[in-house]
Amino acid sequence: MANKGNKKRRQFSLEEKMKVVEAVDSGKRKGDVAKEFGITPSTLSTFLKDRAKFEEKVRKASVGPQRKRMRNALYDDIDKAVFAWFQEIHAKNILVTGSVIRKKALNLANMLGYDNFQASVGWLNRFRDRHGIALNAVCREDGDRLMNGLGIDKVNEWHAGEIIKLIADYSPDDIFNADEAGVFFQLLPQHTLAAKGDHCRGGKKAKQRLTALFCCNASGTEKMRPLIVGRSPSPHCFKNVHSLPCDYRANQWALMTQDLFNEWLMQVDARMKRAERRILLLIDNCSAHNMLPRLERIQVGYLPSNCTAVLQPLNLGIIHTMKMLYRSHLLKQILFKLSGNKDQEKVDIKQAIDMIAAAWWSVKQSTVVKCWQKAGIIPMEFTDSDTEMVAKEPDIAIEKLWHSVAVATCVPNEVNFQDFVTADDNLIISQELLDTEIIQGMVTGKNTGEAGSEDEEEDVSLPEQPKITITEAISSVQKLRQFLSTCAGVPDAVFGQLNGIDEYLMKRVTQSLTDSQIIDFLQAK
Question: Which subcellular locations apply to this protein (predicted)?
Fold first, then answer.
């Protein structure tokens, strides 16, 4: 009896508990699952009852999956503040030791008003256990060392080893890359030099920027709907707008955050589940990407740190091409207004979103494929040998357009179109928390992703979208069709697109009339 009473109680990690639950979800009988994992039926019932708790813990990364207990910290707000700081540091591959964490914990505790808190070795060990942290992070590499022997070896090692394993079970159609880009959406040619090299970490210029997330596959057959992050949740120009060519979110920095990226990931994961697909998603390790939710249909692969300039397809010409198309469209608008002696108005967020989305969808499949090939992720023989090269320089038509606008707007001679395109390439794209921002989140409980106010200066000064009736829209299509009939050499594709718009509008008006007639009939009865 004594031996039986002294039998050591077995503890299960969250990872083990989730495996038990997943086995039941797969359709196995509960009795068989209990035998397989060596647990009693009552223990299995407890796991199933508490599944929501530990799944939520791991999903939010508040505890490591190896952890066996879910007890909260005594100083819970200090714990959360230190972990928020650690996430930022870990994303940058900065060396983190136990003494560094303890010192930071004391600083944050002091800012939170705790005078008696002691960041002891015992507290550190419990903190590590709670969050599944192993203190073996490596020092961040200097970006300037990328192309020396160490950088080249790192790239070659990834090409020869890890990437081969990652892509082995996927076709090019199911291998994706996602990355963010910052855009000064109101930038005019004459202000190029002032914007060049600006990181835009906040302040007034945050109102003039957007952050856009793009994602495409290696075969160039699928470009996902862009996610664009602005500062205002309800810009004045969004009034009467119910559909956008992208997903739009907002926070006070107009930056990508962990919450926004994870929300986007979960939506993509749900789409892949509905389509019964499994994909590989390659991303960099910026601070917004470092704590991911549990995903069922997406395998995430991280690109080596500080090597994205040569390994990330979107950075090798795809985003550059999108920006070139966006700025070309902007130049055409400027020239059109100049020719009509109209005042140059600021571009509002709605117009910018429309142009960014149009530019993204206009990036050619051949351009996408070439960038994936340049990254060394898919072989060169994947496409025909006559596939066009990625355009690094603007074509003659764009050069003429740039010259016309540059002369009319007094752009300095030393500024060229490429300067205009790349002026915002150095924008910060993900949120980096300061200690004061971490503490503010602990004290006030405010979400660090809270959006800016609605009445932002650049929005209030711009006109709202006029409400157009469906009758007016149909009439506009008819006028456009009449105009095109007077032009020579109009491509069939243009008429096809116009027919599609006409068909959509007629379907809307027919459905509306049909519904109203049914309602009138029922009311008469």
Answer: Nucleus
Give 461-476 pLDDT, tens digit per residue. Answer: 555 667 788 888 888 9
* Contact by Cβ (8 Å): 278, 391: no
Tell me how far apart the alpha carbons of residues 315 and 318 are, in angstroms, rounded to a whole number: 6
Residue with tokens 């003429």: 400
Strand bridging mode 209-217 / 298-302: unpaired
Specify the pairing of strand 209-217 against strand 175-184.
antiparallel
Rounded to the nearest 10°, the torsion over CA 486, 490, 494, 496 is 90
DSSP, collapsed to helix, strand or coil, labels residue 50 as coil
216 token code pair: 């495409």
For 279, the token pair is: 């994909």
Report the run of H or E that residue 216 belongs to, with start and end: strand 209-217
Q: The tokens of 54 are what?
A: 């530990």
**148 token code pair:** 């020396």
Angle ∠(503,507,508) on CA atoms, nearest 5: 120
**What number is the average pLDDT over the span 46-58?**
71
What phi and psi values does residue 223 have, to the nearest 5 degrees? -115, 120
pLDDT for 119-152, tens place per residue? 888 888 888 877 767 654 333 333 344 444 445 6
What's the token pair of residue 239? 């009034």
pLDDT per residue as tens digits for the range 305-350:
777 888 999 999 999 999 999 999 999 988 888 877 777 778 999 9
Assigned token pair, 356: 């960014």
Please state whether beta strands 279-283 and 175-184 pair in parallel, antiparallel, or not at all (unpaired).
parallel
Burial of 324 (0-12, 13-18, 19+ CB in 10 A): buried
- What DSSP character marks residue 206? G
Looking up tokens 């409980």, which residue turns up? Answer: 445
Token pair belonging to 200: 């835009």
Backbone dihedral angles phi then psi of residue 256, each to the nearest 5 degrees: -75, 135
- Return d(Cα 170, Cα 379) in angstroms, integer: 14
- The β-bridge partners of 181 are 212
